[in-house]
């Protein structure tokens, strides 16, 4: 087999010392997926002395696409996959590419497709239809060209990983800024900042149970804590009044919904657009008796209906300047009573069906931990 893979370059199969100066954790992980053991042996022989940025290679071997997927699940830090096309069947390798990108959601790993049957997987159609990073016929690969291909793939993986890390840092920073804004709004009314975090987490639970796409679930997790941002513009004497508000004071308090919308609604970014909608609509009622616009269930966004329920649910269980925290049974009784009037009945049923998980979030993010 090695004469086929590296026909124009002699290979030395004598024992050669492996790199021992670094631990496995310091090496780039390369997964070889091929049903022929000779291919594994020759590939390792050609690459085992390779270093990139002072890091050697750790090889993982799979002899079928199923084994390859299992190794990728166990080792999400695999940098490169050297993948055969024809294994269990004529298209096993191509099917594995789909699973890596679509099922595992792994867009970092670099996939180099190697085939000994180019007629069964034409390069033009494969590179067009599959998210791979290189396509090579086994007969065109020499040891030297394989090393070049791998270094290029590792360099690409390093760049992609850096970008991912930056995105994660930006996302984490953005989330902390958003939580901080929400907590500032809550703290002005002497309420706990933990409330806004709980609203975000519980809203995400209900959104997922409702069947919203995962990207929207993640957006509402971050957007929901900004629901009361408009309170930043409300006078402290109204926010912190321990007794009932007068009609005039309540009219001022109600403006926090539109104020929040005005603060957040200037952006075209999906996160802030969702947050603006929630800020404006989270006091609308299912039967159309809420404020500021008296919207009914058909005209209120699902995001706002979720946060409307979660905001009240969590507030009832939280000590405020004007009330003590309610016990679990009293909270659920009130929610049930308001189903179909204040709250969407379908969301109420989802809250009850998942109440243990939801109350666990309240416990984990309890005010005593703040």
Brief overview:
The protein is α/β, with parallel strands linked by helices. The protein contains 16 helices and five strands.
Write structural notes for this entry.
The chain is an alpha/beta fold and 370 residues long. It has two domains: 2-162, Response regulator (Rossmann fold, 3-Layer(aba) Sandwich), CATH 3.40.50; 189-369, Hypothetical protein af1432. It has 16 helices and five strands. The protein has a five-stranded parallel beta sheet with strand order 2-1-3-4-5, sandwiched between helices. Helix 4 (92-103) links the parallel strand 3 and strand 4. Helix 6 packs across helix 7, helix 7 (194-210) runs antiparallel to helix 8 and helix 11 (256-264) packs antiparallel against helix 12 (270-281). Residues 13-20 have low confidence and may be disordered.
Number of domains: 2
| The named CATH superfamily of the largest domain | Hypothetical protein af1432
Largest sheet: 5 strands, parallel
Number of helices: 16
Low-confidence stretches: 13-20
Ends apart, CA distance between termini: 64 Å
Order of helices and strands: HEHEHEHEHEHHHHHHHHHHH
Task: Find the count of extended strands (DSSP E, 2+ residues).
Answer: 5
CATH architecture of the largest domain: Orthogonal Bundle
Work out the helicity level: 40-55%
Structural classification: alpha/beta
Classify the oligomer: single chain
CATH topology of the largest domain: Hypothetical protein af1432
Radius of gyration: 29 Å
């Amino acid at each position: 087999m090695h004469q086929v893979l590296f026909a124009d370059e002699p290979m030395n199969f004598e024992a050669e010392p492996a790199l021992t100066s670094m631990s496995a954790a310091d090496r780039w992980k390369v997964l070889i997926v091929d049903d022929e053991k000779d291919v594994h042996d020759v590939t390792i022989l050609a690459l085992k002395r390779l270093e990139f940025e002072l890091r050697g290679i750790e090889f993982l071997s799979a002899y079928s696409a199923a084994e390859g997927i299992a190794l990728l699940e166990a080792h999400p830090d695999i940098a490169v996959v050297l993948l055969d096309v024809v294994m269990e069947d004529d298209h096993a390798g191509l099917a594995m590419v789909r699973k890596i990108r679509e099922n595992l959601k792994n867009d970092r790993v670099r996939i180099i497709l190697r085939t000994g049957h180019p007629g069964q997987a034409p390069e033009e159609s494969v590179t067009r239809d599959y998210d791979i990073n290189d396509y090579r016929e086994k007969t065109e690969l020499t040891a030297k060209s394989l090393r070049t291909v791998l270094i290029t793939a590792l360099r690409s993986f390093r760049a992609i990983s850096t970008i991912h890390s930056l995105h994660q840092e930006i996302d984490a920073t953005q989330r902390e800024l958003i939580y901080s804004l929400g907590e500032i709004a809550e703290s002005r009314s002497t309420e706990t900042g933990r409330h806004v975090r709980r609203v975000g987490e519980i809203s995400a639970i209900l959104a997922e149970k409702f069947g919203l796409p995962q990207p929207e679930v993640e957006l509402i997790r971050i957007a929901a804590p900004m629901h009361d941002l408009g309170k930043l513009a409300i006078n402290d004497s109204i926010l912190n009044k321990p007794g009932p508000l007068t009609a005039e004071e309540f009219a001022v308090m109600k403006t926090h919904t539109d104020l929040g919308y005005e603060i957040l609604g200037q952006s075209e970014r999906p996160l802030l657009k969702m947050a603006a909608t929630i800020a404006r609509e989270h006091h609308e009622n299912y039967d159309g008796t809420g404020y500021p616009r008296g919207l009914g269930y058909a005209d209120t966004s699902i995001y706002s209906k979720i946060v409307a329920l979660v905001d009240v649910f969590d507030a009832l269980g939280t000590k405020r300047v004007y009330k003590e925290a309610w016990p679990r049974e009293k909270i659920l009784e009130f929610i049930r009573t308001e189903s179909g009037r204040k709250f969407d009945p379908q969301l109420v049923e989802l809250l009850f069906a998942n109440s243990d998980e939801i109350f666990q979030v309240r416990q984990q993010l309890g005010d005593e931990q703040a």
